[in-house]
Amino acid sequence: MRTILIIGAGRSASSLIQYLLNKSEKENLHVVIGDLSLALAQKKTNNHPNATAIALDIFDENQRKEAIQKANIVISMLPAHLHIEVARDCIVYKKHLVTASYVSDAMQELDAAAKENNLIFMNEIGLDPGIDHMSAMKVIDEIKEKGGELLLFESFCGGLVAPESDTNLWNYKFTWAPRNVVLAGQGGAAKFIQEGTYKYIPYCNLFRRTEFLEVEGYGRFEAYSNRDSLKYKSVYGLDNVLTLYRGTIRRVGFSKAWNMFVQLGMTDDSYIMEDSETMSYREFVNSFLPYHPTDSVEIKTRLILKIDQDDIMWDKLLELDLFNRTKIVGLKNATPAQILEKILNDSWTLQPKDKDMIVMYHKFGYELNGKKEQIDSKMVCIGDDQTYTAMAKTVGLPVAMATLLILNGTITTPGVQLPIRKEVYVPILKELEEYGVVFKEQSMSYLGYNPDKELS
User: Fold this and answer.
1) Is the predicted pLDDT of residue 52 greater than 60, yes or no?
2) Mind listing the pLDDT tens digit for each residue in 383-425?
3) DSSP labels for 249-291?
4) Is pTM, for the whole model, over 0.70?
5) Where are the domains of the chain?
6) Are 143 and 150 within 8 A, CB to CB?
7) CB 233: neighbour CB atoms within 10 A?
8) An example of a Gene Ontology BP annotation on this entry (predicted)?
9) CATH number, domain 131-253+353-389+437-445
10) What is the homologous superfamily of the domain 2-123 according to CATH?
């Protein structure tokens, strides 16, 4: 049997494992699931005869190398910064590697060695990055093949709560790593290009410059800019495009409310707060407010954030129980961002019967035969339950499909790469449709960012 080693059995691995086990008999697969927690790995095998669970500590060099040596191909579902040792071992033992993570500089440095050994190191093959690359390149290639010239490419994606499980004023619950949500947008200005002009949004303004999107059947959304939209300019072959923008989708009103935390300083992860372990939620809020001998924490919060008495922003803060005197942070040597994450987890954790939702939206503006056109491509995916979430499905299934395509010799191009070639995206996008990941494309006239120009 052909052995697939999966390193990491966390939430994102459930749909990935299920897919491979369902294919295991027909495809002659033995799936080895390695995790620091043997119990978690065993749970994910679901007692399948073609699955084996092993305790695997990737910091244990002998254990790691032994597991990789026995595999035909390796899937790393570890946090991004932990892939590199696995990747180096894959070079030594000549094993293909698949990850859903962004290509790091250290991973890119292995490109020559991977090509020399005819190895495929497929990265960014999850949701975002992943399905976004593949669905975008499909349309971009189709436009170019017709002789069209790209004028605009915008891409938006968001992990949200499904409408039937949307039960709070923020219209949001954590469907993925809460820490990533709290730290979103930090580390430098957002960069993009709009109508030929380079634009920059500093973190302090990021959540107040949003774009609105309509998705049929699901209503209105907003999107704030990702940190660096420009890095895919050459990757996508869009060196001459006038507008290139990538953003994160939320329900309308989320960004304005989130900006309150940014302005107060609660998303800062650069310093530790004294006595955080015994601090109440109310004291946490008050620590960011000026001293006043008589004004309450509530009044000071309203004043500094300029919240009127009838503003729903105030109700959103109250809903989080931020001003509770008795709830204790309970985190030792915590940063503001870590404390905020703890508070938000109280309210935004998905409940057992909750479902999540993925929304992806691409816009393509192009000129063909002297006429300017636009294609909007939209995808909505709803999760099944808490194990087989929309997030686990859209991250895990492309990883699993790519793994099988590599094993079966459909994907053959060696090296460290993204899923932007036809040999990758054509079969995967087609198969994803069988699992409810379907893009609906709509054609229209292209107006860019100047809707009056066609009328003047």
Assistant:
1) yes
2) 988 878 899 999 999 999 999 999 999 999 999 999 999 999 9
3) EEETTHHHHHHHHHHHTTT--SSPPTTTTT-BHHHHHHTTS--
4) yes
5) 2-123, 131-253+353-389+437-445, 272-334
6) yes
7) 16
8) lysine biosynthetic process via aminoadipic acid
9) 3.30.360.10
10) NAD(P)-binding Rossmann-like Domain (3.40.50.720)
